[in-house]
Here is the input.
Amino acid sequence: MDQLKFVEPNVGAVTTGGFDTAKGSRIVGLPARITLTWANEKVAQDRASRLNQAMRNQKAEAQIIERVLKSVRLPAEVKSYTLEFTEDSTGVPAVWINLNVDEDNSPSDSKIEKLVQLKRRITSALFKKEITSWPYVRYESL
Here is the structure.
C-alpha cells in the first residue's frame, strides 16, 4: 500500500494516510482539514468550497487519471509517475502528473516530439473526463 500524503497549502504541515495505487506511483493530496484566512468572506467561502470538492474527488480522480495513463500507453521512457493534488498558483484545485524519465542531456528530436505528444494526449483525455482538478503534466528526471 502506497502512502497518500496531504500537504497543507501555505503552511507546510503534512499528514499521511494509506491509499492503494498502481505500482510505481504515489499520490500527494490536499489536507483532510484546512484552516486558511482570506480578507474577503465570499472569496474565502468560494475557495473553501472548491477545496472541499477537490478533496472529496481525489480518490476518484486518481483512479480516472491512472486509467487514462494506462490507456495512452506510457512509453518505455516513462519509468514511473506521481500525482500531486494541490492548488495551482491561482488557487484552483490542480493535479500535477509527474512523469519520471531517465535523465537525458541530449534527447533526440524524435524523443522530444514523442514526449510532447504524450503530454498532449494525456491532457486531452483528462479534459474529456471532466475531472475537477486542473491537470498539469510535467517530466522529472530520475
